[in-house]
Specification:
Blueprint: H1 6-18, H2 30-37, H3 52-63, H4 94-103, E1 118-123, E2 126-137, E3 140-145, E4 153-158
Antiparallel strand pairs: 1-2, 2-3, 3-4
């Protein structure tokens, strides 16, 4: 697997929010297209579905630095991206994603969050949204999220916000 640097993931995610990226008709997004093109969820395609987790997965995918490869232009190669493996083609769902991290002892309370971590929202075991933490200070967590009001946008939450899973 290639190296994934948190700073690269955050830089990539913030660039989409800064550009004001908005989904196309019927939930069409470039993020789902990239994942579908590299068969990330094969054999299923995820275009046209809720896409917050597709955004997060895609930011990690495109930020992975190739390992032991000479063809560095092939940055969307899912073979070198093992962040969150597909299981029954459900990994674009927030509930599955959060469950994956819990099952692998990688799910922590927000009080232990670090910059570059993934943050889930919703009732535990029924998470419904996800983002990437880009800053934490003064009891607040700052995020970049896909499908936040049909666009990539920033979030700002109290660490005590009850919807943080």
């Amino acid at each position: 697997m290639g190296t994934i640097r948190r700073s690269n993931v955050i830089r990539a995610a913030k660039s989409w929010a800064d550009d004001g990226y908005t989904e196309g008709e019927n939930n069409w997004t470039i993020f789902s297209q990239i994942l579908d093109d590299c068969n990330y969820y094969a054999p299923q395609k995820k275009q046209g579905q809720p896409w917050c987790h597709n955004f997060v997965n895609c930011m990690f995918l495109i930020s992975a630095e190739p390992k032991d490869r000479e063809d560095t232009e092939k940055k969307y190669d899912a073979q070198n991206y093992l962040f969150q493996p597909s299981k029954n083609n459900l990994s674009c769902g927030c509930t599955y994603g959060a469950g994956y991290f819990r099952e692998n002892n990688s799910f922590y309370p927000v009080s232990e969050a670090e910059i570059g971590d993934i943050i889930y929202f919703g009732k535990r075991g029924n998470e419904s949204h996800v983002g990437i933490i880009y800053d934490i200070k003064d009891g607040r967590v700052y995020t970049v999220e896909g499908n936040k009001g049909d666009k990539v946008a920033y979030g700002d939450y109290s660490m005590n916000y009850k919807q943080i899973s």
